[in-house]
Design goal:
- The chain is α+β, with helices and mostly antiparallel strands.
- It has 2 domains: 30 residues, no CATH class; 158 residues, Transposase IS200-like (Alpha-Beta Plaits).
- Helix content is 26%, strand content 26%.
- It is built from 3 helices and 8 strands.
- It has a 4-stranded antiparallel beta sheet with strand order 6-7-3-8, with helices on both faces. A two-stranded antiparallel ribbon has the order 1-2. Strands 4-5 form a two-stranded antiparallel sheet.
- Helix 1 packs antiparallel against helix 2.
- The chain starts with 8 loop residues before the first strand and ends in an 11-residue tail after the last helix.
Length: 196
């Protein structure tokens, strides 16, 4: 669908104080969602999630003797992941692995039964948070903590995370086992990894 009566509309872009007029063409300039159309990402289930650092920079540590050695930023990513269930009581953290420039995890969303004096995190309409909200919150928390570290060193961090994240709905035990083994063995297979 083309906006504005079938004609591309111009918009301005600024590069180092020089403005360029570019024609917006929705046939070329659109982002496709990789999410499963019509799927409710707030429903209970297991999800394999991968989050990548911007430009695949090695931000979180290094692989040494087939093991991940976290640096200061890696420790932040680790602690914020472990703290996530306090913010979202409907999630269970399963296998996860922080790598030098990306992060793999299995997240289990559960249906939450509300008890007296217990208020789980919910969206404005009272529903459990969707996977995207949980991952977005995690990315934001890690970015803010890492930025604080960079500021104490009077250094520029730049963008920490790549836009979005990859997810896969885990539908059966075989899929779960394959993914869990992949995550666990990721440091030992680092040099063969596509994110290396």
């Amino acid at each position: 669908m083309v906006l504005g009566g079938g004609e591309p509309r111009p918009y301005n872009i600024c590069f180092s104080n020089n403005y360029f007029s570019v024609m917006f063409n929705p046939q070329k300039h659109h982002r496709r969602s990789i999410r499963l159309k019509g799927y409710d990402y707030a429903q209970a289930g297991a999800y394999f999630v991968t989050i990548c650092c911007q430009d695949r920079l090695h931000r979180f540590g290094k692989i040494q003797d087939n093991e991940m050695v976290l640096n200061e930023l890696g420790d932040v990513a680790y602690q914020e992941w472990l703290n996530l269930p306090t913010r979202f009581p409907n999630i269970e953290l399963d296998v996860f692995q922080i790598m030098p420039n990306h992060f793999h995890a299995i997240v289990i969303l559960q249906d939450v039964i509300v008890e007296a004096k217990f208020t789980p995190a919910q969206t404005e309409n009272g529903q459990n948070p969707i996977l995207g909200t949980i991952i977005g919150t995690y990315k934001s928390l890690v970015s803010n903590e890492c930025l604080a570290i960079f500021k104490t060193k009077n250094e520029h961090m730049g963008k920490l995370w790549q836009r979005g994240y990859y997810e896969h709905i885990i539908r059966n035990e075989n899929s779960y086992q394959e993914i869990a083994n992949y995550i666990i063995n990721n440091p030992a297979n680092w040099e063969k990894d596509t994110f290396f």
